[in-house]
User: Fold this.
Amino acid sequence: MSAGEPPAPLPGARLLFSLDPAVSYLNHGSFGAVPIGVQRTQQRLRDEVEANPHKFFTQGLLDRLIHTRRHLAGFLGADPDGSALLPNTTAGISLVLQSIRLESADEVLVTDHGYGAVALAAQRRCRRAGATVRTVGLPLAGSAAEVVSRLRSALRPGKTRLLIIDQIASSTAATFPVREIVAAAHEHDIPVLVDAAHVPGMLPVDVAAIGADFWVGNLHKWAFAPRGTALLAVAEPWRRRIEPLVVSWEQEQGFPMALEFQGALDYTSWLSAPAGLFTLRTLGWEAVRAHNMALVEYGQRVIGAALGVDPADLPQPTVPESAMRLVPLPAGVATTPPDAIALRLLISEKLAAETAVNSWHGRGLLRLSAQVYNRPDDYHRLAEHLPALLATLRG
Ligand SMILES: Cc1ncc(COP(=O)(O)O)c(C=O)c1O
Assistant:
């Protein structure tokens, strides 16, 4: 079957990045990639810090943080007074977990698409309270209605104290109807934490309309911010209860500044994040999204065909605009997390391609991303050489 036509590249977009041209960088999803202009912005800020560190930290820094928070919250449709800048989604998850009340009969509900480190954080929090983490299974590519119905029947009112749901899952690239899920949980007064690590910059979002108790997303993946930039949005009733993980000088100010100012840290990532949004807007954010969606679908078809996957078996997210897609690997490949890591390293070393490889319920899944610096050839190269590499594993 033909893979169809790839999208036209966005003129000049590739030159905005400092990625090694010898590598097919097909894993924007894991750690993002910072455009050169944003790197320069951050360097200028670091120069400013080093020209007079005392002045930087004591004259106007808090106002600059507030201004940045407003800018980023505005982009995401979040209430700027109900949002806090954080270093990453991981930090946001732990903040929320330690702020909810949990007793020994209680549980935190997660799904089998959730991020590994998030599950670890939930386990530690529950262990300390004598509570339980329960995992609900969701299909690899289920319909929105199916997902909502499974979650609805998994909720245990009076016992489930928090539901953690991904907006875009990491290992499966599945997208979940978070607004409907929040509404279903709220029917039973169960709070919801939305892990939206991949959402800012990838999908248009109106955080306030989702209605979650907590929503946290990284700007350092798809919104071109330097690493260490995330936003946690907290619904009004919870703001008083959110305690910073680290106590510093702004503790008495409460949410959000007590979370944001954590002493002598490098705040230049946050202050550079608006330059990431500027880059997106300069390229044309709609054009970026259309390009990335069309290219990742093309890449999925090309690599799926090379591995002999029936096109009907290529999982499609319920939100097609997502810039990540899966290609299921042949049976017996990457069936365990160590094997998945080994295969990712092998692809990196032998094929000069960066990909995400995960093992999910014993199935090996190759996750592809597309970003404006990618070209169809990145996927063609992988498609040409991956089958032979996989054959060496099986034979
Ligand atoms: C769904 C999901 N949650 C949380 C994280 C953690 O993000 P960070 O390492 O930036 O905290 C990731 C990272 O890839 C993720 O994909």
